[in-house]
Amino acid sequence: MIEATPQQRKKILVVSAHPEPRSLNAALATFAVEHLRAAGHEVRVSDLYAMKWKAEVDADDFPDHVADRRLDVLAAHEQATLADRLSPDVAAEQAKVRWSDAVVLQFPMWWFSVPAILKGWIDRVFTNGFAHGPAVPPPYSEGALAGRRALVSVTIGARESAFSDRGIHGRLADVLHPVQHGLFWFTGMTPLEPFAMYDAVDVSQDRFAAARREYGRRLEGLFTDEPVPFRSLVGGDYDHDMRLLPGVEAEGTSGLDLHVRPGG
């Protein structure tokens, strides 16, 4: 355990998404909270199932919406956000994100994505006018939520080899790209390499102890580990249409790796 000095102490939001409080995910979330607090950090928790978080975006998110008018979600999000008129549950979660220096997402991979309740948290909390939009800095750069670090901790039932470059499921970096690049980096947060626990269906005490040790090291590096070096939209690598300029990539690079700076 590395205890932070007063100058190093940070504010961290842990968002957990699993319906079973005795699950591996719940245990990892509890470990993260305890480990970070023991190091001297301030931690807040959003346990989405315990909160009975409403996943769907609908008219109830907008108290000022007129029932007989068409709901334009993007416009309604911006209007309600800028007027401070979002529903109270969404406003409370946005306040937690604003408060934080780092966000940790803890979830099981279900059908190659986040659980629906976590997707609903993302859909409802990261509104136009808060996390993106014309009134905030541009995406894929020092955006609206810049200055915050972001870590995914995910459990996966499959073996690690199945998520490799020649694995049948594809690389984990590609599967998690919508979260790492499309949520974190789009909004300006600094994404770290994810912590993944594979073969998570039946975990022995020894394996869990080893995973906790490794996860503890990752948590201790939350503010010092090198981030995923995604390219900035405003760094001169993209044209006006948000297309990567020819010739800026390393030879042989293709796919989603095009959006990672060569050599970090």
Q: Would you give an account of this structure?
A:
- The model has no long low-confidence stretch (mean pLDDT 94).
- This protein has two domains: 11-228, Rossmann fold (3-Layer(aba) Sandwich), CATH 3.40.50; 229-264, no CATH class.
- Helix 1 (24-38) packs across helix 7 (205-220).
- The radius of gyration is 19 Å and the shape is globular.
- It has 264 residues and is of the alpha/beta class.
- Strands 1, 2, 3, 4, 5 and 6 form a six-stranded parallel beta sheet that branches.
- The protein contains seven helices and six strands.
What does the secondary structure layout of this molecule look like, with pairings?
Elements: E1 11-16, H1 24-38, E2 42-47, H2 73-82, H3 88-99, E3 102-108, H4 116-125, E4 149-155, H5 172-175, H6 177-185, E5 190-191, E6 195-197, H7 205-220
Helix pairs in contact: 1-7
